[in-house]
Input
Amino acid sequence: MNMDVSPLSIILVKSDSKGDRLLFRYPFLIKQNNEPSSTHRKNPYTLPIVEDLLQSPVQPSSNINKENLTGLTDEVLSSLFAVKMELCNRKFELKVNDVRFVSHPTLLQLRNKQEKEDDSGIMLVNIVFALQALASHSVVKCYHDLSKRLGIVLKYEEKRCGYVSEQTQLMTTALDDGYPNGPGSAFKIILEKCPLASNIKKMYDDLCSTGLVNLRINRWIPLSFCLPQKVHQWHMRGKIVEPEDIDRCLNALRPYHSLLLLHPLQQMNDFTSLDGSPSLVRMLSQYSPLKNLQTLAADSDLTLSHVFELTAHLVYWAKATVIFPVCSTNKYVISPNAPIHINSPLVETFYETFPGVNLNRVISEFSLPTSLGQKCNPLYHRSQQSHLVQTIIWMLQHHLLLQLHTYIQYMPTENGLLHIKSDQSKKHMTSPSPRSSTVMSNYQATNTEYPRAESESGASTVSETPELLSKAVIIENVSFTSTEDDKQDFQEELLLDFTDEERSSIFKIPATNTPEDLKLFAKLCRKEYFQGNHHIEEIMYLENLRRSQLLQLLDKFRDVLITYETEDPAIAMFSCSS
Output
């Protein structure tokens, strides 16, 4: 559900030996004295009507008015959120009508009474976020985490210098003094005098605008927070990205993927200084969208797992996205949701970045899937090729292009892939021909140790039984002679676990006369690379194959293999077409 994830209000409540009180809330409204009130009687000397006294007021069904919290007085909120000690230091969640309140109540030991063990030295501080009741579980979890982290910071500062005692005293004094226009005027004075109230205001503004919070509590403790459901909307055009979606995509990261920064490298200095990670600075110093993560890790002298962690960190904070390394074989097409109309602000931004170049003219060349190699004229100067690559990178950063990968589907018959019954499959797996038994016995006589089946990271698990897998491995390594009879026997042994109809279709292909091609085809089929779940780049990486080698195989076995192009589902979340 596409809804606003910004908070309706942020409320600060305290409870100590002097009682509970709402100290500050933002945003707040200041009532004007000249506002008419329907609750006051025109004549103060008239008696109230009995029916009005007996009739209970109608409770509002909604506490949201123009994206603001209404209908709940400060006294009601104070009594709701000044919870008992048993509910402290844990998640607090309350739903009232169409508003959901979430917080993490925290107990503080007052600095000037630390030596006393009575309750007079204990203060409850509760920073509450008011959200829409339909907010997702992940949004509620993020706001609870922010409230918890705020409580930890305030607890530390109170212990260090009595910061919370000082701020709450200033707020209480302003509320006790009283103002003619109600508590709203007091909140305005508090906002001017109390740094903690200013921090709450800035937090609210940042959460509503960008989703990135960067505060320094008491000009000492830095507090950084990212609301991913909000922060990714600026480059995903209103699409809400849940943390679970990011985790799922990052779990699909492979060493052949690449990192693409969404901001210029020069603008990342503030973020790296805030992060404080020297390894992040080192990785960004070697960054290039033309490198895959494995190469980036080697150039940065970092482990691949650590580069994955840094990539996840940048993606979570919407500082980067994941792509396939930009190279000449990449095939791009216009994203279905690309905002490339004539009045699009991206047209002007592109013109400012690349003077004299029109965005609509450049991107129109990708109306049909086009590879980067087709765009690079061999007669181009190196600067022209670099300019073309930079325009591609810019369009990828703004999600105007999406990359298409080639997937392969095994279609051995006119009706597609046959689904064999279990008994028939068992017959094929356990009843080898006499010639196959002779070949295996000869292989066993000359080899004392069987080769092990390689298990590649990220590849699909092999569906054959261990018995069949052993036969497949032995068959792939068996030697053959040049006679026609032996070649035919070798072909039959390679396709032993295939059905009769499949073998009949495959034997009609001239490429089966080449043992190397047939061996590679059978190997990739057994590892289920031709089930439409692995694109060419992934197969090349997992099996250490050259692109030309794989493309030649597809061409030779095109009678039983079909190809189609689509985007990589592992990183589809980072494009606006998904």
Notes: The first strand starts at residue 9 and ends at 16. The first helix runs from residue 50 to 54. Residues 32-41, 419-482 have pLDDT under 50 and may be disordered. The chain is about 45% helix and 15% strand.
